[in-house]
């Protein structure tokens, strides 16, 4: 079979895998060293609290590694966050000479400022889908592709499809467009897996349109709209994607001069920190 380009996101995640793994291990190790150095110099209860706050990000990243095939750059901010309570404990302990204390304070302030930027962006992403227009009975609902594992949608993508299927069952006159290019092994496409999953949920195959070439969000939107235009469908256009992802999806649609009604699918709880952090990093990098 002819090799076709796969998701650009998957390629990016694979390229950054060594850095992500290094940061995932280095930050908790450094946090542990700082906490040990501060032991005996701060109240045991404060030390215990700082230790728990440092361990939580590492545990979250470890769980993500065990439940996902690919690492994600969103793990880096999560790993760095483990340094904040450890640095705070070290500063409170007073167990440092002045130059080291100044360095710790500078790093702590930089991490807190970075965390504040991410939190502000989280609020902005949340505002994107807080309110949206009602979905018309004849709407075309575009579902953006995502990770596929062993021929099945991964949790994040499955949540998107579950939401789309629910909207279709409420009004079977709606059309669903599934968009996603070839999987990494080239055995199928995200779109075909999505269409099959929707059919298993009881969606009429005649109401599903399949777009098999998109490799990223921009192509998801662009190709789906072109497909609908070729079919001369001019109903209300909606887009279903993960809650964190809708801001970028609507932005890409606006660049094409198209207005989409956002429909948010929940992010699986276990991957919320990594997915939301990755999205902010993607936006800040200009993508």
Notes on the structure:
The chain is an alpha/beta fold and 287 residues long. The protein has two domains: 8-128, no CATH class; 140-268, HUPs (Rossmann fold, 3-Layer(aba) Sandwich). 58% of the residues lie in helices and 10% in strands. It contains eleven helices and seven strands. The chain has helices at residues 8-15, 17-38, 44-67, 75-81, 83-93, 98-128, 155-170, 190-200, 217-230, 246-255, 272-284; strands spanning 140-144, 148-149, 152-153, 175-179, 208-211, 237-242, 261-265. Strands 5-4-1-6-7 form a five-stranded parallel β-sheet. A two-stranded antiparallel sheet has the order 2-3. α8 (190-200) links the parallel β4 and β5 (208-211). It is elongated. The chain starts with 7 loop residues before the first helix and ends with a helix. The mean pLDDT is 91.
CATH class of the largest domain: Alpha Beta
List unreliable stretches of 5+ residues: none
How many domains in all? 2
What is the approximate shape?
elongated
Q: Key terms for this structure?
A:
two-stranded antiparallel ribbon, 287 residues, alpha/beta, 58% helix, 5-stranded parallel β-sheet, Rossmann fold, single chain
Task: Please outline what is shown here.
The protein is an alpha/beta fold.
Can you lay out the helices and strands and say which pair or pack?
Layout: H1 8-15, H2 17-38, H3 44-67, H4 75-81, H5 83-93, H6 98-128, E1 140-144, E2 148-149, E3 152-153, H7 155-170, E4 175-179, H8 190-200, E5 208-211, H9 217-230, E6 237-242, H10 246-255, E7 261-265, H11 272-284
Parallel strand pairs: 1-4, 1-6, 4-5, 6-7
Antiparallel strand pairs: 2-3
């Amino acid at each position: 079979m002819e090799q076709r380009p796969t998701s650009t996101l998957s390629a990016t995640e694979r390229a950054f895998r060594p850095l992500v793994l290094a940061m995932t291990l280095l930050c908790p190790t450094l946090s542990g060293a700082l906490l040990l150095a501060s032991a005996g110099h701060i109240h045991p209860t404060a030390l215990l609290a700082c230790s728990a706050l440092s361990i939580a990000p590492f545990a979250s990243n470890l769980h993500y590694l065990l439940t996902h095939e690919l690492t994600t750059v969103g793990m880096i901010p999560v790993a760095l966050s483990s340094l904040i309570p450890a640095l705070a404990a070290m500063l409170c302990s007073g167990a440092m000479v002045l130059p080291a204390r100044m360095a710790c304070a500078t790093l702590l302030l930089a991490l807190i400022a970075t965390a504040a930027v991410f939190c502000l962006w989280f609020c902005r992403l949340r505002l994107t889908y807080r309110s949206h227009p009602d979905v018309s009975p004849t709407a075309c609902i575009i579902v953006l592709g995502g990770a596929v594992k062993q021929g099945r949608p991964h949790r994040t993508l499955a949540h998107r499809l579950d939401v789309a299927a629910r909207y279709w069952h409420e009004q079977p006159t709606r059309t669903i467009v599934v968009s996603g290019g070839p999987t990494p092994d080239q055995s199928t496409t995200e779109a075909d897996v999505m269409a099959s999953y929707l059919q298993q949920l009881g969606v009429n195959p005649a109401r599903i349109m399949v777009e098999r070439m998109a490799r990223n969000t921009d192509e998801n939107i662009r190709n789906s709209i072109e497909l609908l235009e070729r079919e001369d469908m001019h109903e209300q256009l909606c887009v279903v994607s993960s809650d964190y992802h809708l801001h970028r999806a609507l932005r890409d649609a606006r660049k094409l001069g198209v207005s989409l009604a956002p429909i948010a699918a929940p992010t699986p709880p276990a991957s919320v920190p990594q997915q939301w952090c990755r999205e902010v990093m993607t936006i800040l990098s200009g993508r």
